[in-house]
Amino acid sequence: MEFYIQVVTTTEKKEDAEKIAKTILEKRLAGCVQIVGPILSTYWWKDALETVEEWQCLMKTRKDLYGAVEKAVKAIHPYETPEIIAIPIATGSKEYLKWLHDEIARNV
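Above: the chain's sequence. Below: its structure in token form.
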């Protein structure tokens, strides 16, 4: 049984989010990438509290592809330490998960 995850990253520019989405999809590392934003992010960075507008990428993929997704995102992400986290997809509609499986399976 395959396990699916949603990988999340954020960027300061919409164009960077679009580049990440296009790269991940062209490599067939995800079946879908949604870009959400702008969002407001507040966080600590180098001992300073930062608040910036960002764009969020939500990438639906298989758990076994996480390493390849992380590597691809890091290769093009402009941040020194980008957020790249994975959230397990506990369940979903059969039809959607079949579609996701079929789109990612083309990677093999």
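Helices lie at 14-26, 66-76, 94-105.
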